[in-house]
Amino acid sequence: KGKRAFIAGVADDNGYGWAIAKSLAAAGAEILVGTWVPALNIFESSLRRGKFDESRVLPDGSLMEITKIYPLDAVFDNPEDVPEDIKTNKRYAGSSKWTVQEAAESVKSDFGSIDILVHSLANGPEVVKPLLETSRKGYLAALSASSYSYVSLLKHFLPIINPGGSSISLTYIASERIIPGYGGGMSSAKAALESDTRVLAFEAGRRKGIRVNTISAGPLRSRAAKAIGFIDMMIDYSSANAPLQKELSAEEVGNTAAFLASPLASAITGGVIYVDNGLNAMGVGV
Ligand code: NAI
Questions:
Q1: Whose CA is nearest to atom 28 of ligand 1?
Q2: Average pLDDT in the chain
Q3: Of the residues 23, 147, 175, 222, which is catalytic?
Q4: SS3 assignment, position 1
Q5: Which is it for strands 272-275 and 211-217: parallel, antiparallel or unpaired?
Q6: Ligand 1 pocket, 147 CB below 6 A?
Q7: How does pLDDT run across 17-58, given as a tens digit for each residue?
Q8: What is the rounded (10 degree) CA torsion for 239, 241, 243, 245?
Q9: Is 190 a catalytic residue?
Q10: 100-111 pLDDT, tens per residue?
Q11: Would you say the CB of residue 213 lies under 6 angstroms from ligand 1?
Q12: Residue 205 neighbours by CB under 8 Å, 6+ apart
């Protein structure tokens, strides 16, 4: 029977969220997405105008359908959290019910339940700054958007995730090894996300039998990655040094997510799963 997935962090056809949506759709899942409020209009209009039609093609030739797009800003848990300047911001005023709690409530009233929850979002306003030059505000903003956003998402969606369900986030090896250039507290945010994956696997596992894993993905030229500024260098470094000397495709991460969400992975939880052509296993560049 078809499963239903909610994927937070899809706003174009370049990122991991889109690729995960496609792999889940190809496996028969119904797709709901959560799109960052400021990116919502352009994403919806591009989709409507057919701009993504080529990238919507599934292996069987059909086009991926997104059943519903929900506005979402994962740094706010409920309406009481939203400051005045955001409430009155032009880019937010046209949408409603986009805090995490309200998004979960909307999905519940529209569909009742989901089977798969995906967190494919991150933001660090000072990502280009070394940690030694990162402000407290920038550091906490990175943690809020990239780590607590996942705790909040799982907390609010857990009541509507069906038994046997599964949850996945995306992380990066900068959490455990030094990656100069991945600054602003983003390395710290990924370390928190990985640690939280273990604790949340325990809590969601004991409470509801839900599995929680994170995929440590290799470099991809997404919108977010281009903003960091060193993505081409990281892709070249990986091709030069990884055991598998090929460019990583987003689809390979999507397929791993589909596996992790499936009963084939029924004993896998609390894990950091590397999908990086094996680069994590290298000790030195060669
Ligand atoms: P992306 O740009 O496709 O995805 C990031 C998404 O986060 C965007 O759609 C953006 O609108 C959304 N977002 C930002 N702040 C938000 C907020 N407050 N509320 C809701 N949505 C928000 O880029 P990418 O690279 O596919 O990122 C997805 C995940 O993959 C992130 O967790 C990222 O750290 C991770 N990752 C990316 C790698 C890469 O090389 N691109 C490598 C390893 C992990």
A1: 120
A2: 97
A3: 147
A4: coil
A5: parallel
A6: no
A7: 999 999 999 999 999 999 999 999 999 999 999 999 999 999
A8: 20
A9: yes
A10: 999 999 999 999
A11: no
A12: 211, 212, 269, 270
